[in-house]
Amino acid sequence: MLTATDHNMGAELKNHLHEQHYFRLRLGVAAFVVLSLFAVLAFRFSYLQLKQYNHYQTLAENNRISLVPIVPNRGLILDKNGTVLAHNFFAYTLEITPSKINDVEATIAEISKLVEVSSLDRKRFKKLRDQSHNFESVPIRTHLNEIEAARFAVNHYRFPGVEIKSRLFRHYPLGKLGSHMVGYIGRINDKDIKNLEESGDLSNYKGSDHIGKSGLEQFYEKYLHGTTGFQQVEIDADGHAVRVLSSNAPIPGNNIILSADSKLQEIAETAFGDRRGAMVAINPKTGEVLSYVSQPTFDPNLFVDGIDSESWKALNESLDKPLINRPLRGIYPPGSTFKPFVALAGLEAGKREPPYSINDPGFYTLPGSSHRYRDWKPGGHGTVDIQKAITISCDTFFYGLAMELGIDNLTSFVRHFGFGRKSDFDIKGEIEGLLPTPEWKNRRFKQPWYPGETVIVGIGQGYTLVTPLQLAQATAILANNGVAMRPHLVSHIQNAQSGKNTAITPIIQDKLTLNPNHIEIVKRGMVDVTMPGGTAASVGANAGYTIAAKTGTAQVIGIKQNEKYNEHAIDERHRDHALFIAFAPAEDPKIALAVIVENGGHGGSAAGPIARKVMDYYLLGKQPAPDAAKENKILNPATPIPEEELHD
Amino acid sequence: MISKLFQNLFKHIDAFLMACLFFALLTSLFVLYSASGQSLDRVSAQAINMVVALTVLWVAANIPPQKLERVALALYVLGVLLLIAVALFGSISHGARRWLNIGFTQIQPSELMRIAMPMMLAWYFATRDGKPGTANFIVAGLLLAVPVALIMKQPDLGTSLLIASSGFYVLFLAGLSWKFLAGAAVSLLGLMPVFWSMLHDYQRKRIEILFDPTQDPLGAGYHTIQAIIAIGSGGATGKGWLNGTQTQLDFLPERTTDFIFAVFSEEFGFLGNMLLLSLFTLIILRGLMIASQAKSTFSRLLAGSITLNFFSYAFVNMGMVSGILPVVGVPLPLISYGGTSMVTLCLGFGILMSIHTHKNLVAN
Fold first, then answer.
1. Which of A21-25, A459-463, B7-11, B257-261 has the lowest mean pLDDT?
2. Quick check: is B9 in a domain?
3. Is residue A252 part of a domain?
4. Could you report the per-residue pLDDT of B190-226, keeping only the tens digit for each?
5. In this predicted structure, what is the pLDDT of residue B53?
6. A84: left (phi > 0), else alpha (psi -120 to 50), else beta?
7. Which residue in A140, A486, B159, B323 is a FRET match for A585, CA 20 to 30 A apart?
8. Which residues partner with A186 through β-bridges?
9. Domain membership flag for residue B10
10. What percent of chain B is predicted at pLDDT more than 70?
11. Which chain B residues are within 8 Å of A37, Cβ to Cβ?
12. Which residues of chain B are within 8 Å of residue A20 when distances are taken between CB atoms?
């Protein structure tokens, strides 16, 4: 007799055997599927390798069919009036494929007997060769003329591995003008390849040698480049194309049309003369950038085919730093140009509303401290209300106002004007500038915030740093009554084939609701700046339209207490930066701008005239006087300038 | 004495399977030498990967399957948690979120799932009494769906499909009803359009290009076109080692990793392909044999799934390189360059050997 346990065990065993049997059945099915699918593979291999062998053999070993990419024409860059800022032309280049040659040096020596090969050409060749793969062809000479090309063609048979190619070259006809805006293209390097790989665009760059490296050329790369076409060609044993089997035309890149005007650009850059600085002019209602100056500039044509090391060294090591894109990457203390925004912050916080006024003794002290925060005018300005404080740039007034607002209120309000953040501009590399807060200081220096630091933020000094683009944008936002439009340089994308324009829609970035009376007070204060008695009276003289403006100077080196700043006693590069912001016509602003002249001294006299010329041309179509550059008397005050204008 | 030590050291190693693996790994080194443009650095790096992987194999072979059974649940839970962590904090590279930074290094939790998934399901069915019913299969289906969905989300279509199939193998071997299988096959066909609409653009493109590689000959279709030319031009006996023109002239992309089979095919031809297929078949048949002889439900389901999973990799890779499957990032098992997949594979083979050599202990 079986016990219950035995019975269970028997059932379990039976179950187990049944399960195993069933499992083996399933394994059998799986094995069958495995073998069938492997049979499918085997069939596929036999099809490719036995049946179609001849076909693939032809394709591979004789290497007779080759896919040749056809590089699309790169889009043009045009200014507002259709003036060409960047275009392409065909030229012959002489290119060497190092892997096909035993002695590259000897070959170059032979070539130089036929066509001129300068030492710069050799250096560039060496640099490009180091950067590229051995089987790629590298140019030894570019821009061959017809005679040189013909002379080499006759001797071509002597130079296997050396090829004459007809290539599209990028050219910037206006050279240095607006080069920081337009940017340049350069040869594709490993980093570019990596980026293209990540964005999935690499296959569209087969055959392309160049890519946008800076400025608009870089930002609008995907519009400018176009779509690469290709040809399937049959080639003979020597590698020459015999027959086109199929072809797909390339689609040329789009043209981009700027809102800037090259004529205005020229006027602005000429107005700078040989001084360093930056200027950005914006249409406050749309955010369109009308002019974008970074001085000094450079010739972008140098970069297209790889800049030679001497030119590079000269540009890179120059004290004037011509390669820095100042409007975007130059950071400066805003100085007194910050005051209108501080004033508005005060008014919106319900402080200093007229008829409130102070009696200015010429300095400000914090309660319980003897340290004097000096006004620029010894002895003070007397009775000053908020509008007058802007007009005469009264430091004392703003020291107190900043203190009363507190640093957090102040910075969070002016942040709406674009300070301390990126503006989403259409050139890459923008930096944020700095709106200091106690929290920032603690993070950065592990130090507490001192009240005195709030005081000087009120006049745009201290840690506060802005870029010229930010300053121009803030002015535009003020001119536009608190509505921030995204600043942008390109107004239209043009289809190169159909000629159809697609407008870039203006984008509202931020909308501050402001009391119209408060804006009015600030704007009136700024209009008076360019009136007699204001800090930039001469800028407004005989303008024929009203200019709202504010001057500023930013210290480059600190001045000790009780020491007087003497511009003539200081090395030129240690002089103050001159700043100037303005918009006009004040009642219906069409242009807002910010000008910074590095080490220029005073805002009204150094930066103001540049702004005036730009506004005159933009609003009235007026050309500056022929000797405009010499007209600036900043360093040679032969004619007396009113004291108001010597300060800010 | 020494022979005894030797015997002890290798008593859990299955000689037949090991011989097959050695042969495959040796082939890998030779093909890699050619594919990498005769780079000894690449070959020695791969040799180091192999040493690590074989050590893992030896360790796994010495762990009795009961121990694995005990950690299966924990391993699965850990895997799922890591996948959730990837979804939340993973680092993005090439547009996919697959890696998790754990301080000193980065890990790819989907790799863990390749083993944890079949272990979990095998454990699940082993703990149910009697013939598993519909409810069991539904639970198992859910256990399978969660990690697969997380991996698909990364997105990593190839890996998620392969892990799904490794889980599916367990369900199949555990006795999923034929009616259900037929129904699933029909509804899968019906759901194709839905699935299609859920795919990312690049995934769709890969499938479109499968049907017409000439659509994008410079871009995504390039891989497939060049690989097929390489295979086809290999002919019956191949162009010979180091003599593949497609390989040596840089026409073949990713030729040390996912497309290494094209290199092999070009240089060793149809004959070589048949030998490689036979080698793979031997490995798979040996694995299925081990599964059929296994004594516990857990070990037989696990052994079956590991073996069939190896088949999936081999089939999908050779299928994609020869142009009958879409290009998904799956390496050729045992041959492609890469440490992670080598280690995961050898871990699987180690478990197989353990199941085989511990079976008499398990019997009671």
1. B7-11
2. no
3. yes
4. 888 887 777 777 777 767 766 666 666 656 567 788 8
5. 94
6. beta
7. A486
8. A211
9. no
10. 90
11. 311, 315
12. 300
Q: Same domain, yes or no, for B76 and B163?
A: yes
Chain B residues inside the 8 Å CB shell of A35: 281
**pLDDT of A48 strictly over 50:** yes
Structural domain for B34, as ranges: 15-62+204-364
Name the token pair of A227: 């779509």
User: What are the counts of helices (DSSP H) followed by strands (DSSP E) for chain A?
Assistant: 24, 23
- Decide: helix, strand or coil at residue A199: helix
The token pair that represents A162 in the structure block:
């050396």
CA distances from B113 to B82, B309, B338, B344 (A): 10, 12, 18, 10
Q: Please say if A336 is a catalytic residue.
A: yes
Is A204 part of a structural domain of the chain?
A: yes
Q: Is A32 on the interface with B (CB under 8 A)?
A: no
| Structure token digits, residue A323 | 């390669």
Token pair, residue A296, equals 């000094």
Calculate the average pLDDT of chain B. Answer: 86
Which stretches of A449-577 are DSSP H helices? 451-457, 468-479, 516-529, 537-540
Which element (helix H / strand E) includes A552?
Answer: strand A548-554
CA pair distance A43, A46, nearest whole angstrom = 5
Taking CB atoms and an 8 Å limit, are A45 and B230 in contact across chains?
no
pLDDT of A138 above 70: yes
A509 contact partners, CB below 8 Å, separation of at least 6: A418, A423, A424, A484, A485, A486
Q: Are residues B173 and B266 in the same domain?
A: no
The pTM assigned to this predicted structure is 0.61
Q: Highest mean pLDDT range out of A60-69, A460-469, B355-364?
A: A460-469
The two structure tokens encoding residue B30: 């030779």
Q: How confident is the model at residue B112 (pLDDT cuts 50, 70, 90)?
A: confident
| Interchain CB distance below 8 Å, A27 and B217 | no
- For residue A19, the chain B residue with the least C-alpha distance is B131
Over residues A602-648, the pLDDT tens digits come to 777 889 999 999 999 999 998 887 654 444 444 443 444 555 555 55
pLDDT in tens, A440-453: 999 999 999 999 99
Q: What are the start-end ranges of the E strands in A183-288?
A: 185-187, 210-212, 229-235, 241-248, 255-258, 277-282
ipTM of model: 0.92
Instruction: Identify the pLDDT of residue A628.
Output: 45
Structural domain ending residue among the three candidates A258, A287, A308: A258
Q: Which domain holds residue A125?
A: 66-258
Question: Two tokens at A175?
Answer: 């050279």
Contact of A436 with A463, CB cutoff 8 Å = yes
Place of tokens 């027959």: A243
Of A410-424, A480-494, A632-646, the range with the lowest mean pLDDT is: A632-646
Rounded alpha-carbon distances, angstroms, from residue A331 to A219, A323, A556, A574 = 22, 15, 12, 16
Last-in-domain residue among B160, B182, B198: B198
3-state helix, strand, coil in chain A (%, to 5): 40, 20, 40
A64-68, A305-309, A410-414: segment of lowest average pLDDT: A64-68
Q: How many CB atoms lie within 10 A of CB B117?
A: 31
Which among A42, A61, A80 is the end of a domain? A61
**How many domains is chain A partitioned into structurally?**
2
Amino acid at B223: H
Say whether both A53 and A103 belong to one domain: no
Largest distance between two CA atoms of chain A: 132
Chain A interface mutation, best of B128, B131, B224, B229, highest count of A Cβ atoms under 10 Å: B229
**Highest mean pLDDT pick, A157-166, A255-264, B2-11, B247-256:** A255-264
Are A241 and A566 a contacting pair, CB within 8 Å? no
> Which of B175, B198, B221 delimits the end of a domain?
B198
User: Would you say A232 and A247 are in contact if contact means Cβ atoms under 8 Å apart?
Assistant: yes
HSE toward the beta carbon, residue B350, CA cutoff 13 A: 21
Nearest to A80 by CA among A221, A272, A288, A328: A288
Angle at A528 between CA A525 and CA A532, to 5 degrees: 155
